[in-house]
Design a protein that fits this description.
This protein has about 120 residues and is an alpha+beta fold. It has helices at about 15-25, 50-60, 80-90, 105-110; strands at about 1-10, 30-35, 40-50, 65-70. It starts with a strand and ends in a 9-residue tail after the last helix.
């Protein structure tokens, strides 16, 4: 299963770079990210090359973090592919966040995960 890390961070100048800097020092690749913010705080969600080390490094620097299992799916690059997937899954699971990756990054994420979760072609 792929892991997403969620980082609770103050919404201030330089905060995102603090997170990316920590991950860069640890040689952890960011495969995809989504940032949701409010006036004072935000949640940075990422799929990274080594989620456990990322959690440890960020926690050591004072960030509040957690990991969550996420579903990885490789789709063909053509019109309607995402829609067909969503139609087939809408009654089975709830989706809050969707990441898009170049296909090589998806394959790298999936090959690093402990088990293959899904493939739709």
């Amino acid at each position: 299963m792929l892991k997403q890390i969620s980082i609770f961070a103050e919404n201030k100048k330089g905060m995102l770079q603090s997170v990316t800097g920590i991950l860069a020092r640890e040689n952890i690749n960011i495969m995809g990210s989504v940032t949701n913010d409010s006036a004072e705080y935000g949640i940075i969600r990422m799929v990274v090359s080594d989620p456990q080390r990322a959690l440890e490094a960020l926690s050591k620097e004072g960030f509040i973090c957690r990991d969550t299992d996420v579903l990885g799916v490789e789709l063909d690059d053509n019109p309607g592919a995402l829609d067909r997937l969503l139609v087939s899954l809408w009654t089975a699971i709830s989706m809050w966040t969707i990441y898009t990756f170049p296909s090589t990054a998806v394959r790298e994420c999936l090959s690093r995960s402990s088990m293959w979760t899904a493939s739709m072609r």
